[in-house]
From TrEMBL:
The keyword Ribonucleoprotein does not apply. The chain crosses the membrane at residues 285-303. It comes from Methanofollis fontis. This is PEGA domain-containing protein. Residues 42-115, 122-197, 206-278 form the PEGA domain. The keyword Transmembrane helix applies. Keywords: Membrane, Transmembrane, Transmembrane helix.
Length: 307
């Protein structure tokens, strides 16, 4: 009897060891909790080591050995601008027009130019309600509006800019003289209010309504902008090749895709309603969990038969 009790104790101890191993192994192998889905990459090549890289307003790291690799989620809201900064160099800013697919790398080459010696810095803070609007000082592209604003550093000893222009698809271009100039360390604010372009002539429009703020809207493969205040107006030419599909993407939501089968006439607006569904990640049982359950069941069956 003592021998049987020892055997039972050994069997029970074995069960406890198996059960204790399962959560650890599952935690080590589980990758279902990764947020954002598949990833792609941007490889930033720059001639200045230590230069700081920003996507929109997000700091991504410093250039090292002439390169910085930036990981992005292919299912997330795409970035619109890249800025690279380094002491003694003029800030480089440009649009991001190519987006990597899963496992793909997009190369961006940046050539920083040395700043004029002895020039003190001030800045303009351009505020605008239209995300992604492009800002120009005279004819120099300075970047795009992100989170309602764009900071434009300038040299106080340089030739002052005379005009500002702000452009966005579906809106009338804003142009105004620059009459106030920042001193060293000073920031001058410029408020820009863009007006929607009147629809007429050979233009119509789609009004995309969506339940997810910031969702990216694509007609075929053309990025048309992001949802703001629940909607996005997309002007189209009635004489052009018609779009065939709409795709709406947002991080944490299933991608919405549908055919476009109604086309606006001149001066007409066609409504498209989009309802996005949150992603609910599945949590399947790991093979180790199933094996552990089978072992426990077999041991309990043996104990029952011997009793």
């Amino acid at each position: 009897m003592v021998k049987n009790m020892r055997r039972n104790h050994a069997i029970i101890l074995g069960i406890l060891l198996i059960v204790g191993m399962i959560p650890c192994a599952t935690a080590a192998t589980d990758t279902t909790g990764q947020i954002g889905g598949d990833v792609g990459y941007y490889a930033i090549h720059c001639n200045v080591d230590g230069a700081k890289v920003y996507f929109d307003n997000d700091y991504k790291g410093d250039i090292s050995d002439g390169r910085l690799l930036v990981e992005v989620y292919t299912t997330g809201t795409p970035y619109s601008t890249i800025s690279v900064e380094a002491d003694g160099y003029e800030t480089y800013t440009t649009r991001i027009v190519e987006y990597p697919a899963k496992g793909e790398t997009v190369d961006i080459t940046v050539d920083l130019q040395q700043a004029p010696i002895g020039g003190d810095m001030g800045s303009y803070l351009v505020r605008c309600t239209v995300e992604g609007a492009s800002v120009y000082f005279d004819n120099d592209f300075k970047g795009q509006i992100a989170n309602g604003e764009l900071l434009v550093p300038v040299y106080t000893t340089g030739t002052p800019y005379s005009t500002i222009s702000v452009e966005a698809e579906g809106y009338e271009t804003y142009t105004a003289p620059i009459s106030q100039y920042p001193a060293k360390g000073q920031t001058v604010e410029i408020d820009v209010s863009l007006q929607q372009s009147p629809i007429g002539g050979d233009q119509g429009a789609y009004l995309v309504r969506c339940n997810v703020e910031g969702a990216s809207v694509y007609f075929d493969n053309d990025n048309k902008g992001v949802i703001a205040n629940g909607q996005l107006l997309v002007p189209v030419y009635t004489t052009g090749t018609p779009y065939t599909s709409i795709r709406v993407e947002a991080s944490g939501y299933q991608t919405y895709t549908a055919p476009i089968n109604q086309y606006p006439a001149a001066g007409q607006t066609v409504d498209i309603s989009v309802t996005m569904t949150p992603v609910t990640p599945a949590s399947p049982l790991s093979p180790l969990t199933v094996l552990g359950a089978l072992c426990i069941g077999g041991v309990l069956l043996m104990l029952r038969r011997r009793s």
